[in-house]
Amino acid sequence: MINIEQLLTQNTIEAVKALYNTEPEASLVAVQKTRPEIQGDYTIVMFPLLRISKKNPVQTAEDIGQWIINNVDIAEKFDVIKGFLNITLKADYWKGFFTGALREENYGIVPTRDVAPVVVEYSSPNTNKPLHLGHIRNNLLGFAVSNIIAANGYPTIKVNLVNDRGIHICKSMLAWQKFGNGETPESSGMKGDHLIGKYYVRFDKEYKLEVAKLIEQGMDEDEAKESAPLMQEARAMLRRWENNDAEVRSLWEKMNSWVYAGFDITYNRMGVSFDKIYYESETYLLGKDLVLKGLEEGKLVQKDDSSVWADLTNQGLDEKILLRSDGTSVYMTQDLGTANLRYKDYMPQKMVYVVGNEQNYHFDVLARVLKMLGKEWADTVYHLSYGMVELPHGKMKSREGTVVDADDLMDGMYDTAKQMSEELGKVKEGDEGADALYNMVSLGALKYFILKVDPKKKMLFNPEESIDFNGNTGPFIQYTYARIRSLLRKAAVQNKRIELNGDEDFTSLHSAEMDILKALHEYPGVIKNAGDNLSPAMIANYAYDLAKAFNSFYQEVSVLKEDDENKTALRLSLSLMTGKVIKSAMGLLGIEVPERM
Asked: 3-class SS at 118?
């Protein structure tokens, strides 16, 4: 489909070249949507072109506007306001656009290209606790970004790296061994990830008691933390795990299996999935060989205590340890190995890591060290850094048990959606499909509230605000879609024609019709911009603007009571297309929309 902004940019370049005998750089031509209160469809900013035209802004706009009208067949007229040239497109352009868009099965979605894939890593949970609110933003962002990349035609691989080893895992295992009395998910009635999380919190509680007791006996705090028996035992357990101790490995496999079963339930409910799952226990040693090879080749440095470092001081950073003095790996080493494995697996054009902004430095260093080690693909590493999620009452701490579990949050959202839907009369208790609708509305509210915020920004999540059938919320957009489907069902009952026959008049559209037409026209560009910026917020806020435009149209324009059959068909077609695009846009965000509400 034609990209009108690009076309008008090229037209303007041609106009300037013809009028002033100089071809401007494309960067000097700014084409944007005309503001609603001003006549026109697209506005071209004149000020950057004045040094070429050697004229004032109005004269330059008059020259270029007249050239475009004389030479561009889709332009009908122009208007000049100060340094802004406003172009109105011909009705035939809008008619051609809309009839073509109606025929497209997947309007706005680019067919899959025959190119290298994009790998998107998200979720990356620890197996010592259930998924929480922070994981929800991570998973929803990762899944939506993957969908948006795929909608731009790029093969996309969704991966998860499970952090299934380390001292934090041993803390849960040790606490269960000491205090669990053989408790299982079956015996407790708890999801496996919640059960393991319970013992992670228990470890912290008992550990603090031990530390306090040692401090009372005269130790300083740091020494007490190191000497506490529980910490000593946890470290001993980790060493046994690393030495493949059969008993420890058996316990580890059993408890992890409980966690994975719990994770799967949460992922399914959240509506996210993965094409490949990597496990840190299988990849954590891979980076060691890369580091030793880098040391052998003189790319890394070894200190007197035998530790190995990457010296980044000449790049404005510091030194980064890659192997400890005892030869053990650090997180950076593990990520080097995993990145190398992932590149071998998929040969991707880009590896996107969806990870919170507290890891900005880590991923900067990861890409630099990969380049230092001679990996030509190091530039494919991209950190999609997002802000933390906070609740009205403050931050969350896993080990203290103050985290909002993803499951508990979704349960609460369901209850709120049920209560509000029934209070507003959207559905009555006991109605067929009510449970599915409550799930759809609650998850739509949660996902939309999180995804409408630019990923880079920190956000405050307020569950009550997210479930509102008015305003910039998921339920408002879902309700708009349901309203469209209801309208189309009524039209079918009344035998109204929805299909266009070519006789529809696009020359005198109501402003509300034109607003919808223009909004639909933007959708492919929104998908492209969202892909370029890896920002689901662009899709979310577009869906809201489109839903708002439809509701204004619905209030201002008669559809089923219109006597002119061609006008009715056009308005029903606009409604149909709006519904298709809302469903498509929300689908990219992982949000379902209801047929009835």
From this structure: strand
